[in-house]
Amino acid sequence: MPFYQMLCIASHFREYKHIKELVTMSAKHVMDQGGVVRNIEYWGTRTLPQPMRRHRQVYTIGDYWTMYFDTSPHGLKSLTGVIRRDPRVIRWTMVKQGDKVGDVVLPREKTVTRTDYLNPPRDGSTSWSGLNF
Prior knowledge:
Layout: E1 3-11, H1 17-32, E2 36-54, E3 57-70, H2 73-85, E4 89-98, H3 101-104
Antiparallel strand pairs: 1-3, 1-4, 2-3
């Protein structure tokens, strides 16, 4: 299954429950379609770069959040339809990160551990100022 990122701007409400319901509904929809939700991040409430119109309303602030998930192309199309009809959503975009999570994750770096600089000087002094690096 392809790995996607969805960035969503939702209309701002004073109660947190509206954004929570939207995120829960989106994640549940992905999982009901056989997908896997990898991560959800809330970026906070921000002023929009310009007034945005959606569902016959004009918005100037919004709640930004992003969701990383794996799903089939059919599941992605279905999620897009659900997001499109939701009146709480101002803007959204879906970005394909890769065909699988392994394409996105970088391989582990090979590190070399040098412990010689952690040891105190051998001449008995406690000062590090005499060492030349």
